[in-house]
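Progress narrative, work stream C.
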Amino acid sequence: SDYLRGRNAATHFEQTGNGEFYAELASRFAAITQDEYSSFEATIAKDSGEFRRIRWHIDVVKGTDRGVTEYIVSGIDITDERALEEQLRQSQKMEAVGTLAGGIAHDFNNILSVIIGHSELMAGSELLPPDLKDSVKDISLAAEHAESLVHNLLAFSRKQIREIKQIDLNNVVRSAATLLDPVIGDFIRVTLDLADMLPVIRADNSQLEHMIINLAVNAKDAMPHGGDLTFRTRAEEVLSHPLYPWIASGKYVVLEVEDTGHGMDSEIVGHVFEPFFTTKPVGKGSGLGLSMVYGIVKQSDGYISAESVPGSGTNFILHLPVS
């Protein structure tokens, strides 16, 4: 390629931090015979600092009885291919977890109906001793809290009943923003950067509002000492997305929710949409907020991704298809 043409290979790879790759290449040169070829995968760092995954192929060009004297090495960039495979594995895992969560949620909902029904009967009974009334009230409150968790699990598994209609996402963001003051407090500045003439999408209005509020709550938890929370919208036509190649081509409305919080490393980002995954202390969160957001986006035939750097905030990017 033009990237390597005219350079001394050993010197170049050492200077660019790819010495380990070149050592692997040299060992394969030493092992190959006149009638063989060799292939392997390795990651290289480009001059720009970008890392690319390459499938390398070594062919013998010239050789004698005493050994190979000339090779040709070719490489195919498979970075996007590997990213798609990883996304497929992640999607399959989330689908399996969603199916399991949905089944559990429905069964658990039936159990809760019995608990709540009997609690109401007991609370209204004249035979209930006064000293047990508080206990019955606590049972009812706990059951109602469990019902809320079931609601979130059903959202993640995409089995909620929805009211679908054409929606201007800007209106949903504005409406949700008016509800945020008591949720996120006075130390977080909210900015709306909304594009004009946004195409409509087809979704459930209340679900989208709930989703935006959950993203805001997540941002608040990442900014315990205050910060900035920005909502951006825009229209985007995707042919082949350079960062997220798994997004199908088409026209989308994009919502970005960006905070200036403590951020996340890549390992946490990889698990952030899984049910019950949380980095918060025990008792401080159920781990269902972002999984519910994921379920709503998927139920709307959209895509959600997270970009984050520890210490530099987080940006959630939602692609929702244009109606």
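Work stream C, second folded protein:
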Amino acid sequence: AIEVAWPQLSNPDRFIRYAARIAIEHQPVAQWQDNALAEKDSLALMTAMLALARCGEPAVESRIIDALGRVDWTKLSEADRLSLLRVYGVAFARMGQPVAAARQAVLDRLDAHFPAKSRTLNRELAAVLIYLEAPQVAARTIKLLLASQTQEDQVQYALVLRALKSGWTLDERRAYFNWFNTTGSFRGGHSFSGFVQNIRNEAIASLDEKEKASLAEIINAKLETTDPNVTVAARPIVKKWEVADLLSATEGGGRNFERGREMFGAAACFKCHRFAGEGGIIGPDLTGVGKRFNNQYLLESLIEPSKVISDQYQASIFITTNGQTVIGKVANLNGDKLMVITNMLEPGNFANIATGDIEEVQPSRVSMMPNGLLDTLSDEEILDLLAYLKSGGDSSDPVFKQ
């Protein structure tokens, strides 16, 4: 089995590599450990070290780290860099803290790469470097946490930071615990707020008594639910934009991917819409809109959301027998009551209308997407946002080539 599977540890198809690794893991470790540690091909070596981290004894951890040191970070693709970081992560999770020399070897090769340009790499680098208590890792991760546009990224950084015990300044601690006060507008499943509270509680438990005393006012405060319509950082009005102001400039290239993604957050798009696997699930997934619609349509959808309203997301106007008017989208029929979402940013809060009380129902001509979302953005920022939408979240799209 080892002889058949081993050549497939370097197969470019990750599913075949996975199958080969599982086959090898089912054989006695003593029969393949030396071959794994001596492997020269980078892809096969990383795959074999993952198998050894999962099946080997903790005493072999330093040898795994030495072997991984032969992999040249500069020659790896982003996907392979992620694989390398996850092998380190599995080794540490399974085998515990490495000895001092091995720990320093990992820091010497990884610390200089954090933060990286890639958000995905940053999340994995933060996890590994925080586990190893890298110097100044708190400051670097806090900066990423506070600059992140999506709650997915923010929660990930908060999660890995909770276990970091050394290297904090008091101001960094304050910034970290103050972040939890911004999560009241976050939205998730039924247990989401409880998970955020658990992260906070574990972070508090890692404080010493002096730190607890200094941070008492912050850590003893109760987390409150806040208005989801309030953005974290308010921006001044730039202009009441019209489609004609921007359309002629949309055909050029050289746009900025990272700024486009930042503007997707600044315009509150992430709150309702899924894009490239991130964001809300209230509105439609926007990942593919750039392939389906032209620049004019995209700009009209952003600037004039009520011009064309999909019937899938159209609101209704309910007029009741007692003169009440409710505008929203029906989420459910519960017995003889309609449950209506009146605020797309608060999908869990319903206006309940008895069906017998409904006198008239009309389609709403006003989109549930707010107007003026781009009015705080400059023309260059809007063009970067448009390019980001057209790319489907692909930073290598030709629209970003300088």
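The longest strand covers residues 325-334. No further action is required on this item.
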